[in-house]
């Protein structure tokens, strides 16, 4: 989502409220069926052509891609292996310890681990 927001901003597009695009705004828009004309309130479902800014096929394709990535079925990037996760966590902890040490806020219990 950050890449899409960045691309929209680079092309000079603004949100309906005149703000810059954010990953969160793009995500909300890609999840909202109102943008393909699907209207659903209080058990009433309808298609409202005036609300449609993207066709249903594209919206459904984006939804399928979002679900595939959410479920961890990424074809482009395999999941991080356990050894790499552990090493990454140790690196983050080391950086955090260094930060606490530099501010003088390092508790003895963290210093010894």
Question: What would you note in describing this structure?
Answer:
The protein is mainly α. The protein contains 5 helices and 2 strands. The chain has helices at 2-10, 23-31, 56-70, 82-103, 108-111; strands at residues 38-41, 44-47. It has a two-stranded antiparallel ribbon. The longest helix has 22 residues, at 82-103. The chain is elongated, with a radius of gyration of 22 Å.
What is the 3D shape?
elongated
Q: Kindly state the percentage of residues in helix.
A: 40-55%
Compressed to H and E, one letter per element, the order equals HHEEHHH
| Strands in their spatial order, largest beta sheet | 1-2
Radius of gyration over alpha carbons? 22 Å
Number of E strands: 2
> Biggest sheet, open or closed, and with what strands and sense?
2 strands, antiparallel
Query: Distance N terminus to C terminus?
Result: 37 Å
* Poorly predicted parts: none
**Computed structural class:** mainly alpha
Mean of residue pLDDT? 81
Count of discrete alpha- or pi-helical segments spanning 4 or more residues: 5
Residue share in β-strands: 5-15%
List keywords for this structure.
113 residues, mainly alpha, two-stranded antiparallel ribbon, elongated, single chain
Write a brief caption for the model.
The protein has helices spanning 2-10, 23-31, 56-70, 82-103, 108-111; strands at residues 38-41, 44-47. With 113 residues, the protein is mainly α. The protein has a two-stranded antiparallel sheet.
């Amino acid at each position: 989502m950050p890449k899409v927001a960045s691309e929209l901003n680079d092309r000079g597009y603004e949100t309906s409220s005149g703000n810059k695009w954010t990953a969160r705004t793009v995500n909300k828009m890609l999840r909202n069926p109102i943008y393909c004309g699907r209207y659903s309130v209080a058990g009433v479902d309808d298609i409202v052509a005036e609300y449609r800014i993207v066709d249903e096929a594209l919206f459904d394709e984006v939804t399928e891609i979002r679900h595939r990535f959410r479920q961890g079925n990424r074809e482009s990037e395999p999941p991080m292996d356990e050894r790499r996760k552990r090493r990454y966590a140790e690196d983050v902890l080391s950086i955090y310890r260094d930060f606490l040490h530099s501010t003088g806020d390092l508790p003895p219990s963290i210093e010894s681990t």
